[in-house]
Amino acid sequence: MSNERGFVPLNVDTLSIVPRLDGDTLRVAMSGAVEMRDPGDVLNPYWTLIDEEALRRNLTIVELDVRDLNFMNSSGILTLVRWITRCKSHGLGYRLVLQYDRNVTWQRASIPTLAKLAPNVVVSAGIDG
Amino acid sequence: MITERLTSDYVEMRFGPRWTYISCVRRFVASFFMIGLADKERAEQISMAASELLENAVKYASEEEGYLKISIAKANNEVDVCVKNKAEPHHINTLRRELALIQAGQPEAVYLKKMEEAAMTEGQSRLGLIRILFEAGARLRLDVNDGEVSIHAIFKLEAA
Fold it and tell me: CB neighbours (10 Å) of residue A34?
């Protein structure tokens, strides 16, 4: 399922992203680290593809799981900000759920703040581990 | 607590600021302070600050020379993460404005506003400094001396 148009895995440098379609929910798991100089070069178009495909298929939820991501630099965070900004502009689109590990310092600090950018369409879900 | 023994010790690194070094430095700093402070959260905040400051140095330094010094001052119970590099005057002015702006408001509100602004523009994120201030709870200080910029992220430690 994950190899259908728009939902392809991404492996670049120390980062791996695996999308998996589960009914009308898309689960996107990130692992490794976002520490490249210009993560937007690969992540902006990737998030755009995910976004467009999720809308095309009328998905209700896209879950972005960052629990196995040990670090994300501020340029990486900006790619999520851009994605969230797109979500906000859709009106009736999918809900973006940001899953994070409460025990990882950067995740606990960054992810709930990101969700505040668009509280009507983005929710953060803290999990222990 | 090792901070008792580290009194005014420091970790100092000088290197041509290459991007590939930054993740190594971040991991080293995190491990070092994890052991030294026995405080995982603080160690990760300090290493994140070092990483973000070094990223800025690599992006904006005018010369191939970078310098990182992390001092542990027992008298003040503080850790000072300092990254120093040469910079062009227009970058220094941008940095001064940036710092004044982010220190003027409530950190979370400023962070959210800067995220929204950054999403509307192309180019660099310019979120690193506000991230250090808001997410890591550090105090920021800028020193400029003869074209050399020193950015400090200063962390208050728990009293031993």
Answer: 25
Would you give per-residue pLDDT tens digits along chain B (160 residues)? 444 454 567 888 887 778 888 999 999 999 999 998 889 999 999 999 999 999 999 888 777 777 899 998 878 889 999 999 888 899 899 999 999 999 999 999 999 999 999 999 887 778 999 999 999 999 999 999 998 999 999 999 876 5
Backbone angles phi, psi at A39, to 5 degrees: -60, -25
ipTM (interface pTM): 0.91
Which among A37, A109, A117 has CB closest to B112?
Answer: A117
Of A75, A77, A106, the CB nearest to B44: A106
Interchain contact, A106 vs B48, CB within 8 Å? yes
Structure tokens at B91: 């970058």
Residue with tokens 């490794």: A32
Q: What span, in angstroms and rounded, lies between the C-alpha atoms of B160 and B73? A: 13
| Nearest CA-CA partner of B130 in A127, A5, A78, A88 | A78
Strand partners, A63: A27, A97
Q: In this structure, are strands B10-15 and A95-101 parallel, antiparallel, or unpaired?
A: unpaired
Closest CA to A101 of A70, A69, A128: A128
